[in-house]
Amino acid sequence: MANYFNTLPLREKLNQLGVCEFMDITEFTDGVSALKGKKMVIVGCGAQGLNQGLNLRDSGLDVSYALRKEAIEGKRDSWKNATENNFKVGTYEELIPTADVVINLTPDKQHTAVVTAIMPLMKDGATLSYSHGFNIVEEGMQIRKDLTVIMVAPKCPGSEVRAEYVRGFGVPTLIAVHPENDPQGKGLVQAKAYAVGTGGHKAGVLLSSFVAEVKSDLMGEQTILCGLLQTGSILSFDKMVEKGIDASYASKLVQYGVEVTTEALKQGGITAMMDRLSNPAKIKAFEISEELKNIMRPLFQKHQDDIMSGEFSRIMMEDWANGDKNLLAWRAETGETAFEKTPAGDIKINEQEYFDHYTLMVAFIRAGVELAFETMVQAGIKPESAYYESLHETPLIANTIARKKLFEMNRVISDTAEYGCYLFDQACKPLLADFMKKVDTDLVGKNFNEGKDGAVDNRTLIHVNKVIRTHQVEQVGTVLRKAMTAMKSIKTV
Amino acid sequence: MKQPIVHIQNLNLQYQQKLVLRDLSWNMLSGENWLLSGKSGSGKTSLAKAIAGLLAVEGVVKINFNSASNLPAQVLFVESWYQFKNIEGVANFYYQQRYTSLQANETVTVFTDLTDCGKKHNLNIADVDSLLDALSFSGLKNTQLIALSSGEHKKLQLVKALWLKPQLLILDNPYTGLDSKSRANLNTLLNQVSENGVQLILIANIDELPICINRFATLNNGKISTSNTPHSVSFSKENSKKQIPDFLSQSPVYSSYIIAKLENVTISYGEKQVLKTINWEVKAGEKWLLQGPNGSGKSTLLSLLNGDHPQSYANTLYLFGNKRGSGESIWDIKQHIGLISPEFHWYFDASSTVWESIASGFYDTVGLFQTLPYLKSNKVDELIAYFGFTEEKDTLLNTLPLGKQRLVLLARTIIKNPKLLILDEPCQGLDEEQTADFNQFIDELCSNGMTLIYVGHFESALPKCLEKKMVLENGEVKENSEIKSKNLNLKESINHFELST
């Protein structure tokens, strides 16, 4: 199988990268009718599989689960999840031939094996749905020409997909139709009905393409989302310990700090996050984030280039073939860092203190979000896609760090994200060595405002505010956030 | 003379610019156990929190522990509200999710929770078993926190408090959600710890108190009045005979004579059966009382009617004339139903305003996600005026006292004048006056032909309109009967139930 993207002529590459349309709620007035009475069979019953299935069934659709024979016979968790919630469960052979829509919600790495197994069983003219396009775009999986191939990707973990649905809302969702596989022209209508079935239409649906989704998703996850949060967290912790800050305090500040600061990001973008700082701290955070952007720009560009050329997926798939040798070694290494090993102290840190004592992280996040966004847009990805894959997802990943630090983050995210995260982290740390030498505890560990009178120069502040507020990620974000303001905030403090 | 364990002098306390307690002075002496009562919003909880050191106050609040005692020198305040998080530390889930069966545990188990509590306070884990037994809680050790009913959560809180035996124990509405047998058992346990030297402050509005209570205090207008005998709280009875909003007196139009029909419904989690072959028929316009001890399956039964239970799809069950699982969505079902339950309140997103919370009842959503059309918006205003919330309509729900929050959610429940009203312990957290008013309001409301299912543990506080009764025990129907001539017989049959549990 050849990398699908690389087989396209430049014109078609640009064409597919540029698919991006924020869909109006009026596009969904037909509800789930396009899927009503159709047999929907979900392959896999993990967090996404189960929760999407619960939502679809509660929307009046006919849902059952196809699992591997071993999972059924061994009564594995996926079998229990499905049967105990009273879903019909069967083997591929039993259920796939009856399905009008087959929804593949297995992990990326298994896609080639799963799709190869189910494709011959699928009935003529049926639909195959993905929630991530890696298999189609990077691995170049060829799907039978009579089948329709769509993607419906809720941009949140499975439990959130369910929680937001039962409260009567939804999570932002990306949908796409594979241009090589839409023989009857029904792909979009079905993808829209599916998004209604999971509640996604209430929180905003972005019409994308398989190519745009993959290239932006990979870029976001390995740079700002996982890579930079990991690098920033480890460097911050080590710096505090080096400067004599109590390690258990440092551990708590780092573990929960990203979540608290990015909650502001979620509500009101970079602007809201920066506005939580005092004026002098904001100016300082602005200055160092500009510096960070200059230092890290070549690295962000390298990641984007490797993703576009297929080099990244090539080396990662080599590691898959090699039994995940690198991945497992790097995962173990992450588990051994001092930050990971130091438990967060039983200390109360107020919400504002997370900003005042952790100005460095605010700077890291601004630099990372803006850089990832800019780099994606320069590479031909539309701003709306770039927004979802950078700023929008940052608080969600930050939340996993707050749960159980970096090891947990890497366990929860996809293998693809995890692999890219380690690559980024390894390259980024040496790049920041000189920068970190200048950092002191006023930026991380202690209150930046202590001993300062709070005075700033008017013109400097006006300039800084203007640069922050007029960045394209802020302008796009304002529009997209309006559609999802009702999403519940994550509270841990 | 021994110093008083609690010494309060000239205490002033503000809650949102309103002075709740004024120049309050009060002593609690050794050997005393107090009942603290007062109307909702009179400052009972605030005073309790001030004593427990959880609120910043103006004035003197001094606690003198007995250094000779071997009990922990601690004040423990058991809130009437519990908060638990899922295993990963986030609280973002909704009450419906407790019915989903999931292999990966979302919350810790009762046993883990108790073990953690024991470690934190250096308690002997062997001591907890007798408490669990006394509150018939032993069977729940391996249950996840999310799967507990509201009464069971209350029991878990109480078990922890009684296990710790602090020198001063303050319980805010400990009887809420407990069935009558558990209430009696709790009183026995309170008498025991009091003999062991624990001093109690009980915030409650009920008659069945433990005998160890020997002092009585009432809060009114920021002042405290005390006595040695119980005195009923005299409520200033302003004539509350208000005209019910017009739109609520319109009779529902039923499309089916049968509202709900369950045929041999069985619900189980793994080996554990929560409901066993339940048969039940609710006809349009009927008024049902649903009762049963804590954990008997009441909430699970109601969740089936409200479209919340995933196992509905494998059972034979008809709602509003349609077979469940025949292509309807849960929102098609919910649009006919107004529901409130303690669980619903716990998981409600309280970060919206009073107005928004009530308005969201039109769409059965937790939080308001759309702009209301003119007529609907008028109805919200009307109902807000009826309940007397006009001043607080833009206030965030979670800044109101619990009793008020509950009333707001009750208003949300009826805003769309539903065909079926499901009130699962609706008056939890309301004071006597509010409860009486509310039940009278329900009687009036339901006279329009609305169908009602009402769950209530407190026999003295039920609406008069109830005419049929269903009693569950251990997941089975124990009684399905008529409540004959109202009032008198209702009381009798309830007494019968009390004796038999």
Order of neighbouring strands in the sheet with most strands of chain A: 1-9-8-7-6-5-2-3-4
* Global outline of chain B: globular
Ranges of chain A where pLDDT stays below 50 over 5 or more residues in a row are: 488-493
Shape of chain A: globular
What percentage of the residues of chain A does DSSP assign to strands (E)?
5-15%
What is the domain tally of chain B?
2
**What Rg of chain A do the Cα atoms give?**
23 Å
- Number of distinct helices of chain A: 24
CATH architecture of the largest domain in chain B: 3-Layer(aba) Sandwich
Rg of Cα set of chain B: 23 Å
CATH topology of the largest domain in chain A: N-(1-d-carboxylethyl)-l-norvaline Dehydrogenase, domain 2
For the sheet with most strands of chain B, the description reads: 6 strands, mixed
Low-confidence stretches of chain B: 86-91, 486-501
Based on secondary structure, the structural category of chain A is alpha/beta
User: Helix/strand/pairing class of chain B, anyone?
Assistant: alpha/beta
What does this protein look like?
The complex is a heterodimer of chains A (493) and B (501). Chain A is an alpha/beta fold and 493 residues long. Chain A has two domains: 21-207, NAD(P)-binding Rossmann-like Domain (Rossmann fold, 3-Layer(aba) Sandwich); 212-483, N-(1-d-carboxylethyl)-l-norvaline Dehydrogenase, domain 2 (Orthogonal Bundle). Chain A is 60% helix and 8% strand. Chain A contains 24 helices and nine strands. Chain A has helices at residues 4-7, 10-17, 47-58, 69-73, 77-84, 92-95, 111-118, 134-137, 158-166, 187-197, 210-242, 247-275, 279-309, 311-321, 325-335, 338-341, 351-356, 359-378, 383-392, 394-412, 415-431, 433-438, 458-469, 472-483, and strands spanning 21-23, 39-43, 62-66, 88-90, 101-104, 127-130, 148-154, 173-177, 205-207. In chain A, strands 1-9-8-7-6-5-2-3-4 form a nine-stranded mixed beta sheet, with helices on both faces. In chain A, helix 3 links the parallel strand 2 (39-43) and strand 3 (62-66). In chain A, helix 11 (210-242) crosses helix 21 and helix 13 (279-309) packs parallel to helix 18. Chain A is globular. Residues 488-493 of chain A have low confidence and may be disordered. With 501 residues, chain B is of the alpha/beta class. Chain B folds into two domains: 6-84 and 92-227, Rossmann fold; 246-500, Rossmann fold, CATH 3.40.50.300. Chain B contains 13 helices and 19 strands. Chain B has helices at residues 44-51, 110-121, 128-134, 150-164, 180-195, 298-305, 330-334, 342-347, 354-359, 374-387, 402-414, 432-446, 488-500; strands at 6-15, 18-28, 34-38, 58-63, 75-78, 168-172, 199-203, 215-220, 223-227, 258-269, 272-283, 287-291, 316-319, 322-323, 337-340, 420-424, 451-455, 468-473, 476-482. In chain B, the strands form four sheets. Chain B has a six-stranded mixed beta sheet, with helices on both faces. In chain B, a hairpin with a 2-residue loop joins strand 18 (468-473) and strand 19 (476-482). Chain B is globular and about 70 Å long. Chain B starts with 5 loop residues before the first strand and ends with a helix. Chain A binds chain B through residues 32, 36-37, 47, 50, 54, 57-60, 62, 77, 80-81, 84-87, 159-160, 162-163, 166-169, 202, 399, 402-404, 486, 488-492, and chain B through 88-94, 96-97, 100-104, 106, 269-270, 307-308, 310-314, 327-332, 349, 351, 360, 363-369.
